[in-house]
């Protein structure tokens, strides 16, 4: 049985932990609102760009199929897969980072079983240790996001350009992006998306643009201009979703932690009171029996 | 009788308004868009968009960087990487 003093110290330390988790929970709640708003603000651009790219691409691919940008057509090989894993820089977010990494590692194992080569490109620093342990030496690059509070389009653009360059240099054939899609504060879904070559949704509306549209300079030139941009915007969307998911996961995890700390405190307090009572009783018994002996 | 104009960046919807005319800096030269313009698609070079709220009014100028303009029956949409 722990002594009274030990119990008292223990209660104090749990209380201060609870204060920290509570504060982190409130910070995450405030940030979540902002992150969610940012993710929503990015939607009009990405949905419009996606629609235009899809209809342009299906038009060109449906017509000639020749001369299309490799970003659309691929390298014609299916050898080296690059897994782009977007994580956060900070922990205290429950299983948020672990879930994304788990999804990426599962994909990597499946690809290796098929005899493909796997490489990793990391965004954010939390996933690195786990992936490095499972696939040592397979991390080709890491993008540092610690400098920025909120993911900005500049970052997404920098990542997009780096990826396009690696792709055109023939470093990989197919790139998959792993991030967490924000569904609600309670549910974040680890998601995989192929970003290079651009996947045209099968149900893309081929007639979204009427045939009479004039293009300047030309359909191909516009598409070549838009494809790299589309990659950046997909990354940007993923970063924003990830950010919102992280705050959501963090809020839920910290809420749980705060509640656990509360439970622990009441349990310890009961224990403390009982042993105090026991000490008093023992003391009284000693006095009384001492008096009776006289 | 107005042109519906939208300027969108990845971060937000910058402008959505009904205006008289918008002059867009296209890659192959500036072009003005009025209501009822034929369907048209063009890349945009770095420059400024001029927005005329009404005929003869002084234009409002918004600098844009890198983007893409689309004219369809619904109006003009400019997707820019940076605006303002």
Automatic annotation (TrEMBL), chain A:
GO terms for biological process: proton motive force-driven plasma membrane ATP synthesis. It is a peripheral membrane protein. It is found in: Cell membrane; Membrane. It comes from the Bacteria. Pfam families: ATP-synt. GO terms for molecular function: ATP binding; proton-transporting ATP synthase activity, rotational mechanism. The keyword Membrane applies. F-type ATPases have 2 components, CF(1) - the catalytic core - and CF(0) - the membrane proton channel. CF(1) has five subunits: alpha(3), beta(3), gamma(1), delta(1), epsilon(1). CF(0) has three main subunits: a, b and c. Belongs to the ATPase gamma chain family. Produces ATP from ADP in the presence of a proton gradient across the membrane. The gamma chain is believed to be important in regulating ATPase activity and the flow of protons through the CF(0) complex. NCBIfam families: ATPsyn_F1gamma (TIGR01146), PRK05621.1-4 (NF004146). PANTHER family: ATP SYNTHASE GAMMA CHAIN, ATP SYNTHASE SUBUNIT GAMMA, MITOCHONDRIAL. This is ATP synthase gamma chain.
Automatic annotation (TrEMBL), chain B:
InterPro entries: ATP_synth_F1_dsu/esu, ATP_synth_F1_dsu/esu_N, ATPsynth_dsu/esu_N. GO terms for cellular component: endomembrane system; proton-transporting ATP synthase complex. Belongs to the ATPase epsilon chain family. One of its GO terms (molecular function) is proton-transporting ATP synthase activity, rotational mechanism. Residues 3-83 form the ATP synthase F1 complex delta/epsilon subunit N-terminal domain. This is ATP synthase F1 subunit epsilon. It is a peripheral membrane protein. F-type ATPases have 2 components, CF(1) - the catalytic core - and CF(0) - the membrane proton channel. CF(1) has five subunits: alpha(3), beta(3), gamma(1), delta(1), epsilon(1). CF(0) has three main subunits: a, b and c. It comes from Sphingobium psychrophilum. Produces ATP from ADP in the presence of a proton gradient across the membrane. It is found in: Endomembrane system. Keywords: ATP synthesis, CF(1), Hydrogen ion transport, Ion transport, Membrane, Transport. Signal peptide: none annotated.
